[in-house]
Specification:
The complex is a heterodimer of chains A (about 300) and B (about 280).
Chain A: E1 5-17, E2 24-36, E3 40-44, H1 51-58, E4 66-71, E5 74-75, E6 85-88, H2 100-110, H3 115-128, H4 144-156, E7 162-166, H5 174-189, E8 193-197, H6 201-207, E9 210-215, E10 218-224, H7 225-228, E11 231-239, H8 246-252, E12 255-259, E13 262-267, H9 270-282, E14 287-294, H10 297-306
Parallel strand pairs in A: 3-8, 3-9, 6-7, 7-8
Antiparallel strand pairs in A: 1-2, 1-4, 4-5, 9-10, 11-13, 11-14, 12-13
Chain B: H1 6-22, H2 25-44, E1 45-50, E2 53-59, E3 62-66, H3 70-97, H4 100-104, H5 107-114, H6 120-154, H7 163-186, H8 189-206, H9 209-215, H10 219-231, H11 235-246, H12 255-277
Antiparallel strand pairs in B: 1-2, 2-3
Helix pairs in contact in B: 1-6, 2-6, 3-6, 3-7, 3-8, 3-11, 6-7, 6-12, 7-8, 7-11, 7-12
Classes of the chains: A alpha/beta (about 300), B mainly alpha (about 280).
């Protein structure tokens, strides 16, 4: 295992046993994954796929029943391995007796940030997440979106090299989401590795360079977002296609769909698409649209998870 | 970014527990109770001492005590305060402390804490020490306050009473390990309170070993009684020891101290072990 990777797992597994050990529930099943330093990585999967358990094993909150996990080449079970990691958990519960500044001070102290440095960093970070006027307020007065932004500040306060975010924009309004994305982009440009665990596919597609889809505890698919969503043909849509032409075009197309009066045909090659356009125009049929037929991450996800 | 020492990390966690505790109204209730007791002795109780004997002790103008030896009177008051601390004070302290472990084990809180470069034993130790610190401060405040008030009013400065601070903190330190153990295993503040109070209630009963030896007919029952007495913390014996010190009488045996300390060490050690192996 190498320090070139921010995260590296090898056959990482977690089996939960019910009371009296009568039944086993496999949450994570032999996951081997590598996340290179400086990349932005999205972990996707349906509910119950094992994403949160996987993340918790990286942070040693859950003990693996098999395999190994390393952070920057160090055994993830060691407290020192977590020193360069910033984490924002899903459904976090920050103690309400804290003020915003007090909470940042506490978590920064635990991460080893000195008192003087904390005094300098806390106002800076509060400003960065748009909470500069809220530092002295108790957390009980914060909205969900504000707590989420404060949680992000908490994850950043010790200048981590790896940021693990569990549903980072949960409860955040669209403007706040854009702000979070900008912060993450700036961090990525400085070489910080960002690992996002989210069910918001659009968010992952917009931000992450690489993704993995976890399904029933196993990696079902992984790769670069660009490659997974790359154009792989052309989609021709036309209205009022003559009834005798429809079976012919459907037979030539890789896939088709009919919606109201609109027929859409997906072709694997440019030649096939051009031939179809020629036939449609010869039949006097108006072309509605022609566009590259790429997959969205959502389509990739649905195909991977539901077959 | 520096690497903090293990002790410093535990201190940060203890300070957090302290902060959480003082945000809890029950602790302020304890403080108010102590203040009320000190205030009662200071403002309402009038003591007139004449040539080493108490002429009168009066409350709202009504005479309570006449012509008693001042030293005996002060000893009695000190013993009453020590008894209050062992019984009601301890029960309130346990009640106030019972939620401090379950609260830190809430899913979104513990996972964040564990993501920091802290060792799990430091989290348990921080909770334990922070809680102990709050109760210790309150105990010091009450005992020292009563001692000062009575010393000033009677001119009797018996330092034996100050030993109550140490013994009360020790008794609470033992009981707190039970609170921590139940909190770690069952995550229930109600259960932690019930079990710890049950130990306090059962302690004076188990301490009657001589009577039990006579009353119990089977050897197995007597062995079980003795076993429970020696294994469980000897809260009642510790309280009696405190009263002996306060009354300036000899302490018969230190066995209640060391056996309770062993119990506490085992309870805290096993709580840390269980906590270290748990998934959150």
């Amino acid at each position: 295992m190498s320090a070139d990777f921010a995260i590296e797992t090898e056959d990482l597994s977690k089996v939960y046993r019910t009371a009296l050990r009568r039944r086993e529930i496999v949450a994570v099943d032999g996951v081997s994954l590598r996340v290179a330093r400086g990349t932005s990585f999205g972990l996707l999967g349906p509910n119950g796929a094992g994403k949160t358990t996987f993340v918790k094993m990286l942070l040693s909150a859950v003990h693996p029943t098999g395999g190994r996990a390393r952070l920057f080449g160090r055994d993830a079970r060691l407290p020192e391995a977590r020193r360069p990691v910033g984490y924002l958990p899903e459904n976090h519960r920050f103690p309400t007796y804290f003020t915003g500044s007090g909470m940042l001070d506490f978590y920064a102290a635990l991460s080893g940030v000195g008192r003087r440095e904390r005094r300098r960093l806390i106002p800076e970070l509060l400003e960065r997440v748009g909470l500069e006027r809220w530092g002295g307020a108790r957390l009980g007065k914060y909205s969900k979106g504000m707590l989420q932004r404060l949680g992000l500040a908490q994850a950043l306060i010790h200048s981590p090299e790896l940021l693990i975010l569990d549903e980072p924009s949960d409860g955040v309004d669209p403007v706040g989401r854009i702000r979070i994305r900008e912060i993450l982009r700036a961090l990525e440009s400085r070489g910080v590795t960002i690992f996002i665990n989210s069910h918001l596919l659009m968010e992952v597609e917009l931000f992450c360079r690489e993704v993995a889809i976890l399904d029933r505890g196993r990696i079902a698919l992984s790769g670069a977002v660009k490659e997974l969503t790359a154009a792989n043909g052309y989609r021709v849509a036309a209205a009022g296609v003559p009834a005798d032409l429809v079976p012919e075009l459907r037979a030539r197309a890789a896939s088709w769909e009919a919606n109201g009066g609109l027929e859409a045909f997906s072709f694997s090659t440019r030649e096939e698409a051009n031939a179809a356009i020629d036939r449609l125009r010869a039949a006097g049929c108006p072309i509605d649209s022609v566009r590259p037929a790429g997959n969205t991450l959502e389509e990739v996800f649905v195909k991977t998870v539901h077959g | 970014m520096s690497k903090p020492s293990m002790a410093k990390t535990a201190a940060v966690l203890a300070a957090d527990t302290f902060r959480e505790a003082i945000s809890n109204w029950i602790f302020w209730g304890l403080f108010a109770l102590s203040t009320a007791m000190i205030g009662f002795f200071l403002l309402l109780l009038r003591i007139d001492v004449v040539e080493g004997a108490i002429a009168t002790v009066s409350l709202f103008g009504q005479s309570l005590v006449r012509g008693r030896d001042v030293n005996t009177f002060v000893i009695q008051v000190h013993a009453a305060v020590a008894t209050f601390l062992y019984s009601w004070g301890m029960a309130l302290a346990v009640f106030a402390s019972s939620g401090l472990i379950p609260s830190v084990l809430e899913p979104g809180r513990i996972s964040l804490l564990l993501s920091k470069p802290v060792r799990r034993w430091q989290i348990v130790a921080g909770r334990y020490l922070g809680n102990l610190l709050v109760i210790s401060l309150n105990t010091c405040y009450l005992v020292a306050g009563v001692w000062l008030v009575f010393g000033w009013k009677t001119g009797v400065w018996r330092t034996q009473f100050l030993w109550t601070i140490a013994t009360t903190i020790f008794i609470f330190a033992v009981l707190l390990t039970v609170v921590i153990w139940i909190g770690v295993v069952f995550e229930s503040s109600a259960l932690a309170t019930m079990v710890t109070l049950a130990l306090m209630v059962i302690s004076p009963i188990l301490a009657q070993t001589r009577i039990a030896e006579k009353l119990l007919s089977s050897e197995e029952a007597r062995a079980l009684w003795r076993g429970l007495y020696y294994v469980l913390p000897k809260i009642y014996d510790l309280a009696r020891m405190t009263l002996s010190i306060v009354r300036d009488r000899p302490v018969e045996s230190l066995m209640p101290v060391w056996s309770s300390a062993i119990f506490a060490a085992l309870a805290l050690g096993s709580a840390i072990y269980i906590f270290s192996r748990r998934d959150f």
